[in-house]
Amino acid sequence: MMTYKDQSKSVEERVQHLLSLMTTEEKVGQLTQPFGWQTYTNDQGNITLNDSFKQQVENGGIGSLYGALRADPWTGVTLENGLSAREGAEAVNLIQRYAIEHSRLGIPILIGEECSHGHMAIDGTVYPVPLLLGSTWNVDLYQEMCRAVARETRAQGGAVTYSPVLDVVRDPRWGRTEECFGEDPFLIGELAVASVEGLQGESLDRGDTVAATLKHFVGYGSSEGGRNAGPVHMGWRELLEVDLYPFRKAVEAGAASIMPAYNEIDGTPCTVNTELLEDVLRKDWGFDGLVITDCGAINMLASGHDVAADGMEASVQAIEAGIDMEMSGEMFGQYLVQAVAEGKLDVKILDQAVSRVLALKFRLGLFEQPYVDADQAAEVIGSEAHVQLARQLAAEGVVLLKNEADTLPLSIANVGRIAVIGPNADQAYNQLGDYTSPQPKSKVATVLDGIRIKLANRVLEHTNEVADRHGMHEKDDRPAGYGDNHAAKNLASDLERDSSEVLYAPGCRIKGDSKEGFERAIEVASQADTVIMVVGGSSARDFGEGTIDLKTGASNVSDNSWNDMECGEGIDRMTLGLAGVQLELIQEIHKLGKKLVVVYINGRPITEPWVDEHADAILEAWYPGQEGGHAIADILFGDVNPSGKLTISIPKHVGQLPIYYNGKRSRGKRYLEEDLEPRYPFGYGLSYTTFEYSEPKLSDASMTVSDSVTVSVNVTNTGRYAGAEVVQMYISDVVSSLTRPAKELKGFAKVNLEPGETQTVEFRIGAEQLQYIGRDLKPVVEPGQFHIHIGSSVNDTQMAELTVREA
Question: Care to name a GO molecular-function term for this sequence (predicted)?
Fold first, then answer.
């Protein structure tokens, strides 16, 4: 047996043997990653490989494919021409079989997929976006989601995912805010570890795990003006302390891959930043995995950043800086063979990159098991367990921002007639986030769906209660003689009538200045007792679904579909207000004097002071995924007590930006027009119940710089409802050699409490919680006074004092 095919040999031995057999063309082939959806044609279930793919395999091979299963308007893959769960697995098997059987060395292909909030393939479960996932503050639940995403992706043959996104958001005008967990590096770091452990499991070759790719390395969320891929102005201290922190935690957890960001830092594009890719990542952190570019990043070096004269120079710069694989593969595939032949690239550098690609393939077990079970894919992908997980995550991440006079929860018994109004009330794609595949309407529960089903189910429960009393039930739990029995007839009529009590009108679109739907929306709202306005944003690309008739609310499919996208990759904004005429619609509805509940569905914070002042209740639901409508209905009617907390500060005015909570104490106090306090601070979120905190108690009032102490606090549910509270610990370094933030999150715990129940929550405080990056760019714990703050948000805490002594 050839050494590289011998599973008993070490990964290093197998890599070196295989490398020794390869030609330059075969080596370069391993560093390229063409677009996977272009490799095949699907003709009504008959999947065939394209000639261009076959030629590439036979002329040196392909190392990886990007998005072989991806479906969206960019790829042109639709529900009609795309692959089902089973077909996707069969297609990947076809691709792998051809690559193995028609290449000289039989090297399997690395299939890389997007999984920001679920595998971006047809039939995959669509989870909430990371901004909502962060708002759950539930690390264990998020890790469970990552395991589910890995199972679905690997079941179809996907072996690498381009997630998690670990960017620290500094300006929420940035369109990719929705893809991030928030503005705090500690919280992101905890979720980063959970992501790596959930996706990669105990071993990459298990068959239900995938390699995690950390992105975007680094500073991507701190771009100038919130403009995508814009320059980043940041010193090394801040870079090490803030933006690099989550990446370091994920690398320590064993992340297999990393993706440099598009942006530059202090003049050097991350794609060719050797200080980052070699000195920090590999030497300081000991990372030995794969480094892959973002799509088109090498092209940008010669056309955008302009640090390379042409494609040849850009390609050589990138691989010499530490890039191992190029997403899209255009530049490496075109220039690297020539670069080696002309002596512009040392073959040792090429071999180093190839060895990292091969090592990952061996670790994933692709040589032993390149194929997947199509039956299992059909069973796992979109399973009921995963759907329920999506609903739970959405419910835990929705944030209650306002609840005047206990407007929520609504009582089904006396809520009366409900009007659900707004452009996001019944638009499925508007609640799914940017990285979303085409969806059948039946798969996504909108807010209108959720409310109607919620009320209908309550009537059915009442139906069954009466049926039980009259002995009318058969095995299928429906009243016997349904349709002719007098009581059953009346109850069926009640069900139909109560469902019709939920009225709907879109009112307007997300963007645009058309008010043609206002009259109908006002008419509908005037008939209701409670109005639920579902407004916000959209990251939905043009799926060819047409638009909504603003007068009737019906789908209006035509050749001229309307794209409401105002968030997502490449969609940055100058303001944070509601787009279009949405605010005017809310104001017109408010004039009716009805109880007004506003539900925001969006991918970045919304700054609307009028809504904050006039709405009776406000829910921030971000993009809650396919089960979002059910989760929101659960919260509106009290079946779920909201427990989400903000992971990003919401300003009063866009002019306050940047407003992240952990800015330096030296940043000032106010503007002429307004102070620097946000409308809703980091960590904020209301509940239907109330929680009371005791004073924090330290196990010792002092410690040495090398020691640790424990801080504890008692949290009591003092309200009428069971609920979950996110207990947050912040630390302040009272006097430091270098300027520091006023508070920094260093611990949190989500606890569930019944009414009257008390739990003691403890946090350990040691060097990791107290240190910062010193003048020598190394972590340091300085002796002195520290304030330990514990509470329900950054602005609602109680304090204990800790003295740190020299060792």
Answer: beta-glucosidase activity
